[in-house]
């Protein structure tokens, strides 16, 4: 096939992109979005600060615009992210203990209920593990409400939208390391105790090399009985960029439960990684070598 989405669909997968409602008036941008991708995720529009700027007052305008555009084009939607230590509204940053816990769970319930039936997969909890060697949870206001905050969030999300796949999402998990092993152990524990979890998101914000255990790491999560999704892929520009994009794609195709890939923006100029040109299209919307490498890999799979 000749586009990323159609090529991924040949093996039952999706190929998605992070987007934002404010970009929908950019015609060259929308031409690429609509042509190439069959899944979208809001880069910011469904985060806590965006959806509940004041406690108990929800604003879904941008999220709804994104969902309705996706529906009109037959694209699926990833939801991102119900709970995260970053991009919390200031009122939540000022809470702690049981007040924060109940506000957080209410947030999960309200947002997942609003979008019920429209979300393919939710990032229920984002980035709750620490970097470095310990494989431990990250300290945060949410973590300080009790270690069970993650499972409480997953249970609330399941109750609110039983049809959505519920994911745990994190970065620096691009190989077998202490952080990914900490997450692996949590998922194994959740599966053994019946905590509802369906998928693990590997963000895959990558530099100039790819961990040699990237595919093995995907496989070990799949072997726990969860899907794996590559959720925020971007790769620092350099001699290896196209090869790394291709290797990530090949690794996902090699694991049956790796069900889709999302890149974190359309053009280099849309990326949060200013100056790194980490995406598949250049600022003028031209296909880069990395694009061709991904497309060819999808069609070889
Ligand atoms: O919306 C305001 C705007 O009103 C204001 O004028 C402007 C001035 O700085 O800021 C705008 O908000 C920015 C927002 O993006 C929307 O553009 C924030 O400052 C900026 O911090 C925010 O950055 C986002 C970042 O998450 C926040 O942590 C990036 O766009 C987004 O790509 C990035 O995405 C995260 C994932 O959610 C989780 N994984 C890592 C990934 C990269 O950091």
Automatic annotation (TrEMBL):
What Enzyme Commission number does this protein have?
A: 3.2.1.8
Query: Broadest EC class?
Result: hydrolase
Q: Which reaction does it catalyse?
A: Endohydrolysis of (1->4)-beta-D-xylosidic linkages in xylans
Give a yes or no for keyword Repeat in this entry. no
Keyword annotations from UniProtKB, A to Z: Carbohydrate metabolism, Glycosidase, Hydrolase, Polysaccharide degradation, Signal, Xylan degradation
GH10 domain location is 5-297
Its domain of life reads Bacteria
Q: Which residues form the active site?
A: 232
Keyword DNA repair included in the entry's annotation: no
Hey, which family's this protein in? Belongs to the glycosyl hydrolase 10 (cellulase F) family.
**Name recorded for this polypeptide:** Beta-xylanase
